[in-house]
Amino acid sequence: MVELDEDLTISIVQAIARERGVEPTELGYTLQDYIETDALRLLARSDTETWTLSFDVPDGRVTVTGTGRVDFDTFGDTEVAPGAELTTDPSAVD
Fold it and tell me: How far apart are CA 9 and CA 6, in angstroms?
């Protein structure tokens, strides 16, 4: 969990690096390549905590909530392309 008064973009980069077992400078990309970081900072300063934002980076999906939670889920061996939705709910499958 991340306190939103910190720089949220730094917290996201640290969460990705921690999950991958590398230093943040070793990721090989920047968040700016995948999301407008100024807009992310504005969202983090909103008066409500009911928002959730998810976006994809090369090796996983980042999910951030208004409560300060930052999650990073790797794509792993599922071969799900970035931007694709993965569901485990059988009723959602045609």
Answer: 9
Q: Which residues pair with 53 in a beta bridge?
A: 64
- pLDDT one-digit tens code per residue, 36-75: 988 888 888 888 889 899 999 998 999 998 888 899 998 7
> How far, in Å, CA of 52 to CA of 68, rounded?
10
CA gap 84, 78 in Å, rounded: 11
Residue whose token pair is 């909530």? 65
Contact status, residue 16 vs residue 72, Cβ threshold 8 Å: yes
> What is the dihedral angle through the alpha carbons of 86, 36, 34, 14, rounded to the nearest 10 degrees?
-90
Q: Taking the domains of the chain in order of start, what are their residue ranges?
A: 8-84
Chain Cα centroid distance, residue 73: 8
- CB–CB of 52/66 below 8 Å? yes
Whole-model pTM: value is 0.69
